[in-house]
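> forwarded from #structure-qc
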């Protein structure tokens, strides 16, 4: 319940308080320019895998992004609680052993790497930062509701 409320609070914050950082015209131009630059200079794969590391400097740009970092921390806290409960549930109800839990977390980790390094960048380029945040909280709420 607490995890659900934290995610719901993050969604409401993103929907009603979080401003769009770029005007729509500028965002579309940036998407077009990035795509052209990525294909022209270093290739598509290079820009998807290495550019996010350079883009992390945006988190310390101003108070808005520091607030977003705090929001991400509390969202991660809720997810951490969910994962702990998942271990107990899998061991108790699904008869998972230590090896099964290790494989489960390996799969979760690998999928997390793919989502954060590829999918998140593509979504950010296509729908913008604000809608990526909104989408992430909606998916988090749906995920939490599925727990029951």
């Amino acid at each position: 319940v607490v995890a659900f409320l934290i995610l719901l609070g993050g969604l409401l914050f993103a929907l009603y308080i979080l401003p769009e950082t770029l005007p729509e015209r500028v965002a579309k131009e940036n998407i077009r320019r990035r795509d052209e630059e990525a294909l022209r200079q270093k290739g598509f794969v290079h820009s998807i895998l290495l550019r996010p590391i350079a883009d992390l400097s945006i988190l310390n740009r101003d108070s808005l992004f520091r607030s977003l970092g705090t929001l991400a921390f509390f969202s991660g806290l809720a997810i951490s609680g969910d994962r702990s409960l998942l271990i107990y549930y899998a061991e108790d109800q699904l008869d998972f052993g230590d090896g099964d839990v290790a494989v489960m977390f390996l799969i979760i980790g690998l999928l997390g790497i793919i989502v954060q390094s590829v999918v998140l960048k593509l979504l950010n380029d296509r729908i913008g930062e604000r809608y990526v945040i909104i989408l992430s909280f909606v998916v988090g709420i749906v995920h939490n509701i599925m727990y029951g």
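QC bot note: The helical segments are 2-16, 24-42, 44-55, 63-93, 98-127, 129-147. The chain has a mean pLDDT of 79.
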